[in-house]
Fold each of these.
Amino acid sequence: MQWIVNEVPDKSLLNTAGWRFIVPQLYKKFPNDDMNMNLSLSSPPVIRISADNIDATVYADLIIDVLDGPDVIPVACISLVFHGSGSVEVVKNNLAGSVKLNDFSMLLKWSKIGNLRMFIIQPIMWTIIETVFLPYVNLHLAKGFPLPITHGFTLQNAEIICSNSNIKVCSDVAIAESYDLSQLLIEKHFSYAFRDLQKIA
């Protein structure tokens, strides 16, 4: 996973002028240059599922890029560890969910602009995570992932059971209102007929 962030609610955070009092050497070297943030997973996330909760630890690298004319110049890399919790639900025939941030830590991995004071940068990163990263992730999780179900049917009264690192979905099944049962029978008939023809051939 890789995500280049070039839009945030506080636009000053994507220009070196907005960092001139936080990282003076950045502004001095690249005055009034635009920036972006290149976020990528550094290793697979660790997910723990129990009867009471779903916890996740996500490891990522955040590279700060300066846009100096036509050039994209990486100036620093910060290693991030996110600790969050989540919930899941069935939406139509999809398994959807949401996550919230419980805590995170950060460590300077490398820098071309000298040492960075992490304790000053951390509150800013928290704001970016809460206003940009989490809404983006939750937007995609809300759409959900399709559950395996026969075409023309839909889940009803679904119940989710979490235990021992497993997520189980128990549900009744009903014919979708917009689906014609006779069409399902025709599809099944042609499916079986095609299989019989393959055996003869």
Amino acid sequence: MMNCQSPRKPYRASQMSTIFITLLCCPSFLGAAVCVSYTMWSIRPSESCGPFRSLSTMFQSGKLWVKELETHNPNLAWLAYAHSYIVENPLFLFLGAGIFLIVIYFNTQVVDGQRKIISLLQEQIENEGEDKKFLITRLQAIHQQKRPLSPHRLTSQASQDSNG
């Protein structure tokens, strides 16, 4: 029964679902990416059937496609150049992944900073509301003290004093 209680603040439920989805999707994506990468670069395809039967790895199909594209259409020679230096170069992939991770890190830092600023601003709004209430009560008290006693108030105060 204790585990099924809803959270006191409603944002916690959405925050927990985001954390759950992150913890669920990241390992699943990494596992799938590792399996596909291993299959493409390491496992030898079947020699009797399939689209990769004459190749030693599935990754070679991309290389053959770029070579064929270059020979049939010389205007796209830049694509073969880009493929050989960008896609096949692990340094570029590591740099791209590093830049991507740095952008994600900075984005999370900005979001965390904005959350802190929002909480500080909400606290400041609450404090200003309390300050206004305090000042209004002080002003009312000062106004009550400075207000001259009218004859009507004197008689009503005297009757209250004699009753009380």
Amino acid sequence: MDGAGSFGAGRTGSAFDLIAFIKQPQTVLRVLAWIFSMVVFASIINEGYVNMGSERLHCVFNKNADACNYGITIGIMAFLASIFFLALDIYFPQISSVKDRKRAVLLEMFFSGFWTFLWFVGFCFLASQWSHTSPQELPLEQASDAARAAIAFSFFSILTWAGLTVCAVQRFLLGTDLTLFTTEHMGEQPPKQPYPSNDVIGQTTIPVNAYQSPPLIETVETRPPGYKIAPAF
């Protein structure tokens, strides 16, 4: 029973319920994070670079290649991480060890929190570079939609990954409470006290020695020969 029902999952080895899994908030947020990250890096890769009449391509975000590289990098890594954690959510109920479940939840919690911060930095970075982009230097009509889409979905990614962080924290706190009732902790309970006596208030316990058999009564068969009973006066 180790790990049964801990950290927000069902009992170990229980049947997988696809409908219930899809309805979970963390599953919805995971799918949204996957879509948003794909929009960010796909927009920058496909239309985030403009040609200035030469073979060299310039990043649409104020000709700053670091801005485009940053958006592409965190977008691709968030895309892959969303797939990984989605698969982990499916496999999570099959993990029987409480310690392994705790490690998985901690990994998700710290990664989601860290990626929320990276998306916030990316949103500020892209928005700042876009605000300094001059239409005279770059033909923005070629990539303005892609730049705005990357900025907008970077902001949406902040919200989704922050929501995933909250879900992971809730699962961790729930698991911490439930592990108090696992078999590992049950063994740490103090030894049980002996059963109380059968005495009832107002009654006295009768000792065992009081139930002795009565003394033997002399009978005729047990009297020795020649034995006479003294007459009574």
Amino acid sequence: VASTALLALCSTGAFSGLAVEAGAGVCHATPVYAGHSWHEATFRLDIAGSTLSRYLRDLLVATCPDPSLRALPRKAITQLKKRCCYVSLDFEGDLRNSDRHHPVSFCLGNGCSFCLSSERFRCPEPIFQPSLLGQAEPGLPALAFQALQRVPATLRTRLADTVVLAGGSTLFPGFTERLEMELEAQCRRHGYGALRPHLVAKPGRGTAVWTGGSMVASLRSFQQRWITRAMYQECGSRLVHEVFN
């Protein structure tokens, strides 16, 4: 058992920082200091990759109510999302100006062809604007700022120096730039102008937690904390809390 936020940081060689995770099911902003996750300062957004895939299907069907689009399997929609979608750095401006759209065509297995235009950048936008899906909670940049705001002032700059991105939904082109831009804007807006978050976006961040897990599991200090079957059978579930808390 290990914190995914800590494992994400470990994949970059860090043990302190802010982990910003956007995977398939959920997004998190979690401060980590000296290898320990700061649960009281962790914020969660229930919009992530699976939600965006469903949203892309809705956008496509609204544009072209073809039965074959409704029948597309989830895996095909997910692949289309990964291949074609990107994060806009000026969502409202791009939405208003069709000259700034970058349409692409895709073909279904039955030979039918469809065009994606504004859907390409509208699909990932709910991570930044959950209100597009009718949710009142703040977007991921605001949650990342709130996580930094919640930690003690003496640690805030140190954690902001290592903002590690992790998860497949951070791989959209433009995601890192947009998050950095909005996080800096949040800092300025709330009187933290001197705070300059530094984002760490490794190419392999889609599997950062897995990579960090393999690194941590190889450490001798971690191996000393393993629970064997015999230990669990003797002590029961109480042992899990004693070892990992």
